[in-house]
Amino acid sequence: MLYDALRGVKVIDLSRILAGPWCTQNLADLGAQVIKIEHPERGDDTRGWGPPNQSSADGQIHMSAYFMACNRGKQSVAIDFANWQGAKLVRELVADADILVENYKSGSLSKYGLDYAALSEINPRLVYLSITGFGQTGPLAGRPGYDYVFQGMGGLMSYTGQPAGTPGAGPLRTGVAVVDLMTGMYATSAVLAALHQRDRTGRGMQLDICLLDVAVALNANQAANYLVSGHVPQRTGNAHPNCAPYEVFACADGYFILAIGNDGQFGRFCTVLGHPEWSSDERYATNSARLSNMQSLRPLITGILAVESRRHWADMFDAADVPWGPIHTLDEVFTHPQVQHRQLLQIVHHPLLGDIKLVRNPLLAGTPPEALATAPPLLGEHTAEVLAGCHSSTATQGARP
């Protein structure tokens, strides 16, 4: 099991919002001690990103759902490191830490003595992860930016949305902050690799992960399509640029996703629809041919699928091993038998906020219930506990329990 793989690893989390906290939540889920340093008055920005909020029984204490999504398993310590006493406390916590994660503008932590150069003098084994919008160097280094900016700037929104000339045409963002989330995942991988390297070399390093880099990398096959062909990808709605038919279709009582990934699957699909001859038609026999002729194939498919219910087609497709999928609302997601079997909904208890429903980390499939993460912390909830181990005579200055 991976839930205690990082037992004994100490992480100082100076990050806020989503990309950094998503990374440190992964580390916490894997068993690391994650100490989240928050401003005593404001805390992480996302503490105010509600409603919805979870509240205590008396209605006096609130925690935003957004904050809860990316901060389970952490200890919250309230320190204002803008004053020297607070910065000294952070440096003392860093002295025996393995990892520090921060997402401040490049260079801004140096005035507090919390930059990599200063902290590596204190702790040469420190793996120091910096997450920024544009990176530590370059013409835009130091410029702030949020996920939405990079969905546009990195190219993702240029080919996401309905095609030009159709209803609702125009660039479209994803429904979640996918660049932030993937930055957190890339950052997690980088940190774990750096820890492994440190075991060989005895020294830590600074990692420079930025949202722009991740946004460009996320273009994946769309970027490869452009780099190979020279053609700029356009918006294709729900249709796939490289596979066909691979899109959303309407049936008598709703919609479903058809995901034909090879010619054999297409042949079985044609048989289910009662038109096995389509699979030998030169216009549709290969994936390349189908991509070129979807304008004539799509109406043929649509006319047949629209007659029967989703349940009818689901049974037929499952029997023929044709890939398809429903489009679930989130209430349907969490009541689905496979989701329940995988135990993706986990419930943790907070002494003041009660039971909190969270989504289990996919890295931890099969984790026993007793190994569930602790609840997301209230602001400063662990200040006294964590700082009790500090040796500084100013251990309570710059902090607030």
Automatic annotation (TrEMBL):
Taxonomy, superkingdom: Bacteria
Keywords per UniProt: Transferase
Ribosomal protein listed as a keyword: no
A Pfam family assignment: CoA_transf_3
GO molecular function: CoA-transferase activity
Protein name: CoA transferase
Organism: Candidimonas nitroreducens
Taxonomic lineage from the root: Bacteria, Pseudomonadati, Pseudomonadota, Betaproteobacteria, Burkholderiales
